[in-house]
Amino acid sequence: xxxxxxxxxxxxxxxxxxxxxxxxxxxxxxxxxxxxxxxxxxxxxxxxxxxxxxxxxxxxxxxxxxxxxxxxxxxxxxxxxxxxxxxxxxxxxxxxxxxxxxxxxxxxxxxxxxxxxxxxxxxxxxxxxxxxxxxxxxxxxxxxxxxxxxxxxxxxxxxxxxxx
Length: 164
Description:
By secondary structure, this protein is an alpha+beta fold. It has a domain at 83-163. Helices cover 48% and strands 21% of the residues. The strands form 2 sheets. A 4-stranded antiparallel β-sheet has the order 1-2-3-4, with no helix packed on it. The chain is elongated, with a radius of gyration of 18 Å. The relative contact order is 0.15.
């Protein structure tokens, strides 16, 4: 059975709100600098820069976050990007709460093999996720909350079909 490519795009209004909320950090930093509280000024400037860096690509790039096709799921959402996740390696997916955010957990049949194929910079992150959550692949749903249940159902359905 051939699967048509399915693209999952973010809710751009929501992502741009996250991006521009970084200005709040800079405004608070200016206020603290004016009050002479320099530790919090530096901390808030750092948070503002991090917010811009982390959300810039998502806010102004119209690229799909997830691409689901015959071969598997391609991740363009995480930093760093995980690349292609083959259907043969996917067990199932579920939505769970992680630090107050709905998160899609994708469980793999052979997570160690998947991790070993990634760069040395990604391995510690993926190993930490595997150790702490028993799952190395996670997608936060805060940029597409209205599509999260459908994405999980689609992943589970296609993983079962491709398994046969």
